[in-house]
Design a protein that fits this description.
With 147 residues, the protein is mostly helical. The protein has one domain. Helix content is 67%, strand content 0%. The protein is built from eight helices and no strands.
């Protein structure tokens, strides 16, 4: 089994993997209690569909698609696990005042996914398109790209 078959993220270009690693490090440092701050929907439904169509076009059907999908899965898994662990135990649950609704959690994951794709495609998309995709993640992603 080749390295690419074991780790589809290795199919991404080296610069994209470096940015993604930096973004992942910053994301992992976030307290899951502030996830709702990143759930603000930055796109209406039509804008989101147009953005997703553009992303699909850029990613294409080649091997890079597997890398993008693997990165998205890793970020989603980490986010869900972090949020779930934050709710562990009665005292934590009783003290937690900022529980989010299922809709907020979906908006958060959607926002995160757009940000991850923007970080991966950083060099292939225009700055205004990048900023639109990043929404509330723009500062974290810009630092990851500039570091």
């Amino acid at each position: 089994m080749s390295a690419d078959e074991r780790d589809p993220i290795s199919l991404l270009p080296p610069a994209a993997r470096t940015r993604l690693d930096r973004f992942a490090t910053a994301f992992q440092g976030l307290d899951s209690n502030i996830y709702p701050a990143f759930s603000a929907a930055s796109h209406d439904a039509d804008e989101r569909l147009a953005a997703l169509a553009r992303i699909q076009e850029i990613i294409g059907q080649g091997p890079r698609r597997a890398g993008v999908l693997a990165a998205l899965a890793d970020f989603r898994e980490f986010a869900v696990r972090s949020a779930t662990e934050a709710l562990g135990g009665f005292q934590t649950l009783a003290a937690r005042s900022n529980t989010s609704s299922p809709e907020e959690r979906l908006r958060f994951l959607s926002s995160l996914e757009l940000a991850v794709v923007a970080v991966i495609l950083w060099d292939e998309i225009e700055p205004d398109e990048r900023e639109s995709l990043l929404g509330p993640w723009v500062q974290m992603a810009t630092k990851a790209a500039a570091a």
